[in-house]
Design a protein that fits this description.
79% helix; 13 helices; mainly alpha; 331 residues
């Protein structure tokens, strides 16, 4: 399949989603618009990963994943800054600005004929593909469970951050903006670390042990009453995250066969992202009965057994993925 076509479709979805709210601000239109925009953004990120897998040599995967990781984090920062400034100073034209940006994305994503040097695996039947997908996912079940709960616990920060700064810390909105920006800034700063020094060899037990960093970091946010400390705390969490994620994403890219890569990654993305609405609703409901700091304390406590489980699941995942890479090379 030509992945550049798949990469162009999300831009169309985003444009349609933005058109929904031109002059219409009822709740149904807003939800529909958000669904289309988020769906488009998700597909675009995943399709770009498939393009990298198809065209790059395996030795270049980690560098490519790192560059893509830093680029996505950088765009998050730019979007926060430019979006905030546009809302304040260009309120009447904000929706049109978004449509123009999405249109530029579509122009830059015009499909092209793909040429590459890798040999395509022979086409197999749909039944065989489904069997291959199921077999691979079954082998990494432990990792999928870990990804689900890690993503879900991080959602607590998104769910509570606005309330934390507004109701608990009673801080200026500028501090909440800086808090939101400090996480992707930390990700950009931490991205080179994944390929340098002690972390360049992708030791799975070291990657797993880094999970323990999140327990005290979330606890500091829960207990502390300094907005500046929370901003520094978010930066540190953002710094650590790419050191964990980049080796894992690289190993996935290496291990999954090209023929089923898109389908497997789509399932992993949907499964991990499923924790966003599930635990988001849970955290929102819990906050009715308990204060935000109390809930965050429990989140920090829950990261301990999750980190312990990571010391088992991540090394096992690396062993399975490495074995599949060797099997592909021997074929």
């Amino acid at each position: 399949m030509n992945n550049t076509i798949l990469n162009a479709i999300p831009s169309v979805l985003m444009i349609i989603g933005l058109m929904f709210i031109l002059g219409h601000y009822n709740l149904l239109m807003l939800y529909s618009s958000t669904l289309l925009i988020v769906s488009g953004l998700t597909v675009k990120v995943d399709s770009f990963s498939a393009i990298m897998k198809k065209h790059l040599h395996e030795n270049s995967f980690k560098k490519a994943v790192s560059v893509n990781y830093a680029t996505v984090s950088g765009s998050s920062i730019m979007g926060t800054l430019l979006g905030g400034m546009s809302i304040v100073y260009l309120t009447d034209f904000f929706n049109y600005i978004l449509i123009i940006i999405a249109s530029l994305s579509l122009i830059l994503s015009i499909p092209v004929h793909e040429t590459f040097n890798k040999n395509e695996s022979s086409k197999s039947s749909t039944r065989n593909e489904i069997r291959s997908i199921g077999s691979f996912l079954l082998k990494i079940t432990g990792f999928l469970i870990l990804a689900f709960f890690i993503n879900g616990l991080l959602i607590s920060m998104d769910t509570y951050s606005a309330g934390l700064f507004n109701l608990v810390l009673r801080a200026s909105p500028i501090y909440h903006t800086l808090f939101n920006m400090s996480f992707p800034i930390g990700q950009i700063a931490g991205t080179p670390m994944a390929s340098t020094g002690y972390f360049k060899d992708d030791k799975p037990i070291v990657i797993a042990m880094l999970m323990f960093v999140f327990c005290p970091m979330v606890a500091i946010i829960a207990i502390g009453r300094s907005p500046l400390m929370d901003i520094i705390d978010a930066f540190i969490m953002g710094f650590v995250l790419p050191i964990i994620n980049i080796p894992i994403n690289t190993k996935l890219m290496q291990a999954i066969p090209q023929a089923i890569y898109g389908r497997v990654m789509a399932f992993i993305k949907i499964f991990a992202s499923g924790s966003t609405p599930a635990l988001g609703v849970l955290f929102s409901a819990v906050s009715i009965f308990f204060s935000i700091p109390t809930v965050l304390i429990w989140v920090s406590i829950l990261t301990v057994p999750l980190a312990i489980y990571a010391t088992i699941a991540i090394p096992k995942f690396f062993n399975i993925a490495s074995r599949d890479v060797h099997e592909k090379e021997s074929v």
